[in-house]
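Is this the right way to post structure tokens for a design question? Let me know if I should format differently. Anyway, here goes:
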């Protein structure tokens, strides 16, 4: 139910507005200083509740939620384990809590960062109680929050639908970070960092590439696909390769690639 994420991502790879970057830095400070504040400064003796460090990362797919968890892991020198809640949540009463208990018990001694991906699988069930199953679904949410509050490591939940979460839930999460869809300036920065220094490139126009109205995850997909196309042609990565890769990515997204997005990319293609 858990997969260790291996990544070399650092703060330079994460393109976010300053206020979101600041919240992530505060999360790092809380994890680093928890022994000082809880044990030496006495906050742990004052109350045993709410000592766990929890965070909710909200935003559309591809906006950097998983990368942010990887960056925190790098900064804290801790392993990150991703748990897909859609595989943890069970239709059988009591099984979801058992799965969650196994995850937290296994992680308790290791101080790892737990990343609960696709948390909507559980959050979406917190609803008005109409039958026994609704009542038990709300119990599952309560159990997850209880274990997160008791877990001495860092637990991160991700969601694409923050607006669907009730305020009672959000109040029990210490940090909430909204990952916005990147604007053109941010997309240009993501493009500049999309290719490793070892990758041969030629005449890439990052300002024009930034006109593609896609998130960072899609940008990385396009860059990687273009690298394979260029490598197969035994050429450096050029705008023509990126155009071909962009068309492929837009087919996957079931979206049209507009003339305004690729204007001026390739001579004679669009003026």
């Amino acid at each position: 139910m858990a997969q260790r994420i291996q990544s070399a991502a650092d703060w330079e790879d994460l393109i976010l507005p300053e206020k979101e970057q600041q919240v992530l830095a505060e999360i790092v400070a809380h994890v680093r200083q928890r022994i000082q504040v809880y044990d030496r400064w006495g906050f742990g003796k004052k109350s045993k509740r709410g000592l766990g460090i929890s965070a909710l990362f909200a935003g559309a797919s591809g906006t950097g939620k998983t990368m942010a968890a990887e960056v925190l892991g790098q900064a804290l020198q801790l392993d990150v384990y991703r748990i897909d809640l859609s595989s943890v949540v069970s239709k059988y009463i009591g099984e979801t809590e058992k799965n969650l208990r196994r995850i937290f018990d296994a992680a308790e001694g290791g101080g790892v960062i737990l990343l609960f991906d696709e948390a909507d699988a559980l959050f979406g069930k917190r609803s008005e109680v109409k039958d026994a199953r609704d009542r038990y679904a709300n119990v599952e949410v309560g159990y997850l929050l209880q274990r997160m509050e008791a877990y001495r490591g860092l637990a991160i939940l991700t969601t694409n639908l923050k607006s669907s979460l009730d305020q009672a839930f959000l109040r029990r999460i210490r940090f909430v970070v909204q990952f916005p869809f990147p604007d053109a300036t941010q997309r240009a920065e993501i493009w500049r960092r999309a290719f490793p220094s070892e990758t041969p490139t030629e005449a890439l126009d990052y300002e024009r590439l930034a006109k593609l109205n896609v998130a960072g995850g899609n940008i990385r997909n396009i860059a990687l696909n273009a690298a394979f196309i260029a490598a197969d042609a035994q050429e450096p990565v050029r705008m023509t390769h990126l155009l071909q890769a962009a068309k492929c990515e837009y087919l996957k997204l079931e979206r049209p690639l507009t003339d305004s997005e690729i204007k001026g990319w390739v001579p004679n293609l669009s003026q």
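Format looks fine. Someone answered above. Worth noting: The first strand starts at residue 2 and ends at 5. The chain has a mean pLDDT of 86.
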